[in-house]
Amino acid sequence: MNNHGSSVGDIIGRFEKKGFTLKGLKLITVDRSFAEKHYADLSARPFFNGLVEYIISGPVVAMIWEGKNVVATGRKIIGATNPAESAPGTIRGDFAIDIGRNVIHGSDSVESARKEIALWFDEGPVNWQSSLHPWIYE
Questions:
Q1: In the chain, N or C: fewer CB atoms in 10 Å?
Q2: 102: pLDDT confidence band, cut at 50, 70 and 90?
Q3: Whole-model pTM?
Q4: CA–CA distance, 21 with 131 (Å, rounded to integer)
Q5: Which residues form the Nucleoside diphosphate kinase-like domain (predicted)?
């Protein structure tokens, strides 16, 4: 997530309210080669350079979230890639205007999430469980 005008706390709160557990969090600056590696699957797309410029333009708050159906549900919390198509109440619907500056990245599959976690968190996620876990999950 690129922190330009959005509230990191509000965004974290949206995932916590769904019962997801934060397993990794760090504030980092991203260099061009790392950004290009992260977005390598989009390198042929016309918006690739803009994505790279955006992610390197300021600090990034990288997160790992865990929970039942977290990838699919997380995509709903985040909203459509194009903020103009994102419903109010979604992160992009509330915090973003331009598709090239859509505030947050979310993995599009469990496989992508595994790759992205390995890239962004080479030390791995934090191994802990919230005391609320038994109240949220069967």
A1: C
A2: confident
A3: 0.83
A4: 10
A5: 5-128
Q: For 10-24, b where at least 16 C-beta lie within 10 A, e where not — what string?
A: ebbebbeebbbbbbb
What residues pair up with 21 in beta bridges, in sequence order?
66
CA 119 to mean position of chain CA atoms:
13
Does position 65 have pLDDT exceeding 90, yes or no?
A: yes
Q: How many whole angstroms separate alpha carbon 84 and alpha carbon 100?
A: 11
Task: Count CB atoms within 10 A of the CB of residue 48.
Answer: 16
Strands (E), the chain: 21-28, 60-66
Q: CA-CA distance, 3 to 35, in Å (whole number)?
A: 16
Q: Is 133 part of the annotated catalytic residue set?
A: no
* Average pLDDT of the residues in 64-78: 97
Q: How far apart are CA 55 and CA 69, in angstroms?
A: 26
Residue 123's SS3 state is: coil
Instruction: Work out the pLDDT band at 3, boundaries 50, 70, 90.
Output: very low
Tokens 């390598």 identify what position? Answer: 40
